[in-house]
Amino acid sequence: MATTRTKPGWLKRPLPTGEGYYETGKLLKDLRLNTICREALCPNVGECWSRRIATFLVMGSKCTRGCRFCGVRTLRPDALDATEPERVAEAVLRLGLQHVVITSVTRDDLEDGGAAHLAAVIRRVRERCSTISVELLSPDFGGNWSGLVEILQARVDIWGHNMETVPRLYATLRPGSRYERSLEIFRQLRRLDAGLPLKSSLMLGVGETEEEVEAVLHDLRSVEVDRLTLGQYLAPTKEHYPVVEYIHPDLFKQWTTRAEKMGFTIIESHPFARSSYYSPDHAKALFGCSR
Fold this sequence. Notes:
Strand content: 15-25%
Oligomer: single chain
Structural class: alpha/beta
CATH architecture: Alpha-Beta Barrel
Number of strands: 12
Order of helices and strands: EHEHHEEEHEHEHEHHEHEEHEH
Low-confidence stretches: 285-291
CATH topology: TIM Barrel
Distance between the termini: 38 Å
Number of helices: 11
CATH class: Alpha Beta
Radius of gyration: 18 Å
């Protein structure tokens, strides 16, 4: 069995609960911080927050792109908040994180796409938490690569940028984004830093074919991406792009084997895999840190 059109039992998640979950939520609320966990309606929020892990969403909670698969709101964004770097650093410190994942909304309204602000967040986190490893999941900056150096100088340990889907579906699912531009950010990063771990993610179940997925994986390896996440697309609401099919866990396992043969070194491939899911565990293997 490879796929199904009826939501299967393997996609059930328990309701979020527990002391760690509520304490994490309260801390984030008190510090007025956004997370992709909440804004994108991630199904793993209960598990991650119970472990006192959260992925910070900076530069506001309003995105300038209108991706049809994403739960983040598409609205005119607010002005950047100069206190946000300090508030993120405070949360990282109080959560006791040794590895943090920072992502952002897309800010096409900003000349540099928000690169300077991302660099400021990373710098302040490192100032407050000197032993931490930092993973960035970045937007494409509208193709303006001028801010990449400043972010790298703030010291990123893993740089992720999600391809999300196959080229044929970009116009439908990712209006305003371009497949080649997403590949180009990896070329630029590799040119600037020969040893930086690069990571990307695709969601399956939106109407792609296996041949198309394999082609994207080959494209990612051609730009030296070595970390990969493959997960099941789940529509955030009924207004979002509908799920075309539910991929059986056995097929995700097959993708793990195929990706390993292509040269990917760290692979998360299962229905609930998301960009930052279990990133702290991967960082432990990479950097030798533990929570």
